[in-house]
Amino acid sequence: MMGLFEIAIILLSASMIASAIIAIWFKDLLASIIALAVMSLLLSLYFYILQAPDVAIAEAGVGACLTTAILIITIRSTERMEEGEK
Known about the structure:
mainly alpha; 4 helices; 0% strand; flat
């Protein structure tokens, strides 16, 4: 019989895979970045459950926050295709 730990790992793994697929599936880059940030936050939770809190903090800080901010700033500096077609 599976315990709570195994169920949490399976749910987190499925959620991370779903978030990665959603990030690839979206055509809008901003939505893809948000899905990627969600995947990174789930990965930091995964590390915390595996009893690696220092790695979880680093992943949450760098992966979820800093990388997301850099990607959003980069997208803001480019012209969107929907706006350029008008």
